[in-house]
Structures are given as structure tokens and as C-alpha cells.
């Protein structure tokens, strides 16, 4: 893989700056990783917006059908979707002027990541913010 994630210092800075995070593919099932990570993002001080067209509410929060339906600015888009679906998410992230695209563990799409970077987004791929937070922030 020729893709390079930001440095640990940059990732630490991202994770410790409170922001609005849209979790694409967020599950209402509390046993699913997307639900656990959304909750973890909340405990880190982030405002979470669940995105799942199948749900009206997750974590007691209004759930949106897509990124483009969210009425307020979103800083980071955290993606829990299959890799082949990432290009459409990148289109939406660019359209809503997100600043950060975070692709979860196992979610890899180099072409879409390059397109997001070219549009000015910081891209983190094949990593989990909850794992990185424990590694880079909680360990301090």
C-alpha cells in the first residue's frame, strides 16, 4: 500500500480537538463496533452524528440518511462501510466540506483516499479512532 497516514502527532491532535464527527454506517446495535466507536468518540468530547439510512435514532441522537442531509457543519467523517462503497462517501464528504476522512480498520480505497486528499481533506485509512486514542492519548 503506497498510502501514508498522518503522523502520530497529527492523529493525536485530531483526536483531542473536540469536533463534530459523522459516523457513516453507525449501527443501532450496541454490540457492533460502529456503535461502540461512536460512543467512544462521545466520551472523547466529540459531537457525534450517526449516519444510517435504516435508522431514525442511534445513541439517543437523530440519525441521518446520508452526509448530505446533515444541516450543520461536519469536521470529520468516520466510515464504517465496505471499501467498495468509499468513493460515494468521499463524494459526499467533499460536498459537505468535511476536513477529515477517517476510514476504519479494514476499510481501504487508495484511489478514493487520493481524491479526498486532492480536495484538501486529511485522510486516515485502515485505523480506528478508539484504538488510536488509547494508543496515543490515554497512554500519555
Description:
The structure is a single chain. Helix 1 (about 10-15) packs across helix 5 (about 130-140) and helix 3 runs parallel beside helix 4. The protein has helices at about 10-15, 35-45, 85-95, 110-120, 130-140, and strands at about 20-25, 45-50, 55-60, 60, 75-80, 100-105, 120-125. A 5-stranded parallel sheet has the order 2-1-5-6-7, with helices on both faces. It has a two-stranded antiparallel ribbon with strand order 3-4. Helix 2 (about 35-45) links the parallel strand 1 and strand 2 (about 45-50). It starts with 7 loop residues before the first helix and ends with a helix. The protein has 5 helices and 7 strands, in the order αβαββββαβαβα. It is of the alpha/beta class. The protein has a single domain, classed as NAD(P)-binding Rossmann-like Domain (Rossmann fold, 3-Layer(aba) Sandwich).
In terms of topology, how is this protein built?
Layout: H1 8-16, E1 20-24, H2 33-43, E2 47-51, E3 57-58, E4 61-62, E5 76-79, H3 86-95, E6 100-103, H4 110-118, E7 122-124, H5 129-138
Parallel strand pairs: 1-2, 1-5, 5-6, 6-7
Antiparallel strand pairs: 3-4
Strand order of the largest sheet: 2-1-5-6-7
Number of individual domains: 1
The secondary structure category is alpha/beta
The tally of strands reads 7
Overall geometric form: globular
Helix run count: 5
Could you report the average pLDDT, rounded to the nearest whole number? 95
Sheet-strand content, in percent, reads: 15-25%
Architecture, CATH level 2? 3-Layer(aba) Sandwich
Topology as a string of helices (H) and strands (E): HEHEEEEHEHEH
Radius of gyration, in angstroms, nearest whole number: 14 Å
Largest sheet: 5 strands, parallel
Uncertain segments of ≥5 residues (pLDDT<50)? none
Output the CATH topology. Answer: Rossmann fold
Kindly report how far apart the N and C termini lie. Answer: 30 Å
Estimate the helix proportion, in percent.
25-40%
Q: Given this structure, which CATH class is correct?
A: Alpha Beta
CATH homologous superfamily designation: NAD(P)-binding Rossmann-like Domain
Amino acid at each position: 500500500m503506497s498510502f501514508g497516514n498522518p503522523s502520530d502527532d497529527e492523529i493525536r491532535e485530531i483526536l483531542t480537538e473536540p469536533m463534530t464527527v459523522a459516523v457513516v454506517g453507525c449501527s443501532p446495535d450496541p454490540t457492533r463496533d460502529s456503535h461502540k466507536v461512536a460512543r467512544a468518540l462521545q466520551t472523547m468530547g466529540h459531537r457525534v452524528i450517526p449516519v444510517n439510512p435504516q435508522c431514525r435514532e442511534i445513541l439517543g441522537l437523530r440519525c441521518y440518511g446520508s452526509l448530505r442531509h446533515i444541516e450543520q457543519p461536519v469536521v470529520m467523517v468516520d466510515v464504517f462501510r465496505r471499501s467498495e462503497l468509499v468513493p460515494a462517501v468521499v463524494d459526499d464528504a467533499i460536498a459537505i466540506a468535511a476536513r477529515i476522512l477517517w476510514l476504519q480498520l479494514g476499510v481501504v480505497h487508495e484511489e478514493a483516499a487520493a481524491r479526498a486528499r486532492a480536495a484538501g481533506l486529511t485522510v486516515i485509512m485502515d485505523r480506528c479512532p478508539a484504538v488510536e486514542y488509547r494508543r496515543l492519548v490515554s497512554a500519555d
